[in-house]
Design a protein that fits this description.
Length: 109
């Protein structure tokens, strides 16, 4: 038999002070990704600068793909609801079966 010794985890370090955070932020370069990336995506992204507008065929393909995804999502939600109802039904049947078994055991003894 081997016994496992409890491992003592080290304590968490103290969070940095406000001065340490300010010093860290002030010491970063302007090219740091935190300062380069936008905080929120643009509201109307449109085509990227220098890129042409997608062709009509590409827009149609994307539209059909999105419609397919929306349809699939709706079917998945319906299947989920059906499965939840079947689960509830199985639980009711299982409870009735348990009651029947309990009654039969009482009658047998």
């Amino acid at each position: 038999m081997s016994s496992k010794a409890k491992r003592v985890l080290p304590t968490r370090p103290e969070p940095p002070s406000a001065e340490q955070i300010l010093a860290d932020v002030q010491g970063t370069l302007p090219s740091d990704p935190v300062f380069v990336l936008p905080a929120e995506p643009p509201q109307d992204p449109g085509p990227a600068p220098g890129c042409p507008e997608p062709a009509a065929e590409e827009r149609e393909r994307l539209y059909r793909q999105i419609r397919s995804y929306v349809g699939m999502n709706q079917r998945l939600q319906q299947s989920r609801e059906q499965l939840q109802e079947r689960r509830r039904e199985l639980q009711r049947v299982g409870e009735a079966l348990e009651r029947g078994i309990a009654e039969m055991r009482q009658k047998a003894f």
